[in-house]
From TrEMBL:
Chain intervals with Acidic residues compositional bias: 400-414
Signal peptide: 1-18
Protein name: DUF2066 domain-containing protein
Superkingdom of source: Bacteria
Keywords: Signal
Region spans: Disordered: 345-365, 395-422
Length: 422
């Protein structure tokens, strides 16, 4: 009992995780007034930032489904206003969380939850001498790291540089990689990890301790480290740390979309027409993805996941395909008949009703009741008649053989020779 009590006290004394909730779906973008359609371009850039931040994937904006959705960004916007940063006009945007998450699901992209690990950053810059960069320090490198971290949705904390910080850790501890002092100095901050960055010119060497500060130097958990060089070294560093946490915490949601419709195309007489239709559907801006449900005779049925309304999809199908829309049909689910349960009278015996004495039924002999089967709802299927021209194989003309070519030349040459002789 005493051991159990000590264990409980030990667990209670452990510091709680300091996961920080990040605002993923709001952004502010500089408005380039000199560009054509500046507002439209800014909305696209803002939506790209939100998608990268919410997915944790820097290449998410180039996804084929996302690229289509970017052109319809107004469907994802919930609020828009204008502001200023350092005298330059900006556009502030808020996007719908359910719509963005649905888009990521349709594009089979991961979702990085908004509750994210908070990283304490100890930054040391070596110029004339080595200095620790505090929260209030005038450092271009720190400003870049903050800006990039905000874009990626990576919460970072920078030590304030008060008396406790200055006396709690030395530059030599950070630069030399002395783990125990770094862990002890970091415990006053409610963070989940500690990042030590050493800057020499355009070279950044960093070490990430992905653990609670109280366990740094105590446990044998190995840190993650790396080196970046060049003018964009700070951006690379933040991207690597963000990718690390996104990889460990992001999940890919189900590919099923809440906005889906079944579509049937008839009169597809050849395979060429089918593949042409399938490719055309995938290219439609209103379509996220398609699944083939059934192919029967000259008909094919698709389950189409939509990025827009059903009405817009119907219009786009007719505008970009040789089809005619027919009346929709309602398809009833198949009814499964349940065979009655027959109770055998006796193994291997046959009873004759004429000779078998009647047996009075008792109230206890009640036929078992089968559970009710809930019928599936009927489905409405859009129907289009394919009117594309049937595929005709090109006719290949036979080339004359070499002997035919020689004889043809001789035949054309004889009249000239005889004329010359005459």
């Amino acid at each position: 009992m005493r051991r159990l009590a000590l264990l409980v006290l030990g667990l209670v004394s452990l510091p709680a995780m300091a996961l920080t909730n990040i605002e993923l779906y709001r952004t502010e973008v500089l408005l380039d007034s000199s560009a054509e359609n500046a507002d439209a371009q800014a909305r696209i850039e803002g939506m790209k930032e939100v998608i990268v931040r919410a997915s944790g994937d820097t290449s998410a904006a180039s996804n084929q489904v996302v690229t289509k959705a970017l052109k319809q960004n107004s469907q994802y916007l919930t609020q828009i206003s204008y502001g200023q940063i350092d005298g330059e006009q900006t556009i502030k945007m808020a996007f719908s969380e359910p719509h963005i998450r649905s888009l990521l699901s349709q594009a089979q992209l991961p979702v990085w939850p908004s509750d994210r690990a908070n990283v304490l950053v100890w930054l040391v810059e070596e110029q004339a001498e080595r200095n620790i960069i505090w929260e209030h320090s005038d450092s271009e490198l720190l400003a870049t790291m903050k800006s990039e971290a905000e874009k990626r949705g990576l919460p970072i904390t920078v030590p304030v540089g008060d008396f406790d910080d200055v006396t709690g850790v030395n530059v030599s501890d950070l630069w030399g990689g002395f783990v125990r002092p770094v862990g002890q100095a970091s415990q006053r901050y409610p963070v989940d990890a500690v990042l030590v960055v050493k800057a020499q010119g355009n070279t950044l060497r960093w070490t990430l301790y992905d653990q609670n500060p109280s366990s740094i130097g105590v446990t044998r958990q190995a840190p993650v480290s790396g080196t970046n060089t060049g003018g964009d070294a700070a951006s690379k560093l933040i991207n690597q740390i963000s990718d690390y946490y996104a990889k460990h915490n992001a999940v890919v949601a189900s590919s099923e979309s809440s906005e889906a419709v079944k579509v049937r195309f008839t009169e597809l007489t050849d395979a060429v027409g089918f593949f042409k239709l399938e490719n055309n559907l995938k290219k439609l801006s209103s379509v996220a993805s398609i699944d083939i449900v059934k192919i029967q005779s000259n008909e094919v049925t698709f389950n189409v996941h939509l990025l827009s309304s059903q009405a817009e999809f119907e219009q786009e199908v007719q505008r970009k395909n040789p089809v005619t829309q027919m009346a929709s049909i309602v398809e009833q689910p198949e009814v499964v008949e349940v065979a009655p349960i027959v109770t055998p009278q006796g193994e291997g015996s046959v009873q004759d009703p004429a000779t078998t004495p009647a047996v009075e039924e008792t109230p206890a002999e009640v036929a078992p009741t089968l559970p009710a089967i809930k019928p599936e709802p009927a489905e409405t299927i859009l129907v289009f008649k394919w009117q594309g021209k049937p595929y005709v194989a090109p006719v290949v003309e036979e080339q004359p053989s070499s002997e035919d070519e020689v004889s043809a030349v001789e035949d054309t040459a004889e009249p000239e020779t005889s004329a010359a002789a005459s």
